[in-house]
Amino acid sequence: MSYDQFLRFIFPEGMFDYFELSDFKEKSDRVEIYFEEKNIHPQEYATDNLESKGFYEQVRMQDYPMRGRSCLLFIKKRRWFNHSTGKYVSRNWKLVAEGTLITTEFASFLKALDRLSRS
Q: Which H, E and C letters describe the chain, residue by residue?
């Protein structure tokens, strides 16, 4: 089993279609895992002229404990400038959850991510 296969086993199916692992920190009481959204334009803006403009403020989520330590996920959602409309846009996670064949676990993850990024 490769490293990539192992990560895909641990995290929700579909996670690595949209995110890449950017960092991992092992602390005495917790594990911190950092993800960044890939620079893949959202489907709903396929005909627009988008330019990546970095990320929104990262969101922190608690995940299942690992090896007796709490596990924190730090996730950065990407934003794009839409030159066609003059506005910033991001991926609509509700559309992803409804419009694709993803697991219930990943859909729950996306809903939590969307909820946390709005608070």
A: CCHHHHHHHHCCCCHHHHEEEEEEEECCCEEEEEEEECCCCCHHHCCCCEEEEEECCCEEEEEEEECCEEEEEEEECEEEEECCCCEEECCCHHHHHHHCCCCHHHHHHHHHHHHHHHC
Q: CA Rg, the chain, in Å? A: 15
Name the nearest CA neighbour of 89 among 60, 47, 34. Answer: 47
Closest of 63, 68, 55 to residue 20, by C-alpha: 55
Residue pair 80/41 in contact by the 8 Å Cβ criterion: yes
Instruction: Look up residue 57 and give its two tokens.
Output: 């403020």
Distance CA 28, CA 11 (A): 22
pLDDT in tens, 93-102: 665 545 444 4
In this structure, which amino acid lies at residue 54? G
Reported pTM? 0.75
